[in-house]
Amino acid sequence: EVQLVESGGGVVQPGGSLRLSCVASGFIFSDERMSWVRQAPGMAPEWVSGINRRSTSSYYTDPYRGRFTIAKDNAKNTLYLQMNSLKLEDTGVYYCKAGDSWGQGTQVTVSS
Q1: 80-83, Cβ contacts within 8 angstroms, sequence gap of 24 or more
Q2: Which band of pLDDT confidence, cut at 50, 70 and 90, is reported for residue 22?
Q3: Across the chain, what does the average pLDDT equal?
């Protein structure tokens, strides 16, 4: 059974930083491309970032490029999202995604 467990969310002021983690199990992590997806209240999910199997390529949508960094540790079966220079509009639930499988999400709230 695929399991994705996110952690690291919280409340932070604008300009602050958070690092999200996603521990994966139930599949061969090193064989899988991984993504982070954000869902704001009342909105559809929005793709944030992705990384290929061996971390040789990473991708970001424009609002996050230059501020967020995705990383994949195949030895630890863990996906990360380093979020810097956070903005109010970054608020939402962040989900780890592997194929069609999603984690339960972790809440990120950016508030002054």
Answers
A1: 80/19, 80/20, 80/21, 80/22, 81/19, 81/20, 81/36, 81/48, 81/49, 82/17, 82/19, 83/17, 83/18, 83/19, 83/20, 83/108
A2: very high
A3: 97
DSSP state of 56: S
Residue 72 CA: distances (Å) to CA of 26, 34, 91, 111: 16, 8, 23, 28
pLDDT in tens, 33-56: 999 999 998 999 999 999 999 999
CB 89 within 8 A of CB 64: no
Give the confidence band of 107 by pLDDT, cuts at 50, 70, 90. very high
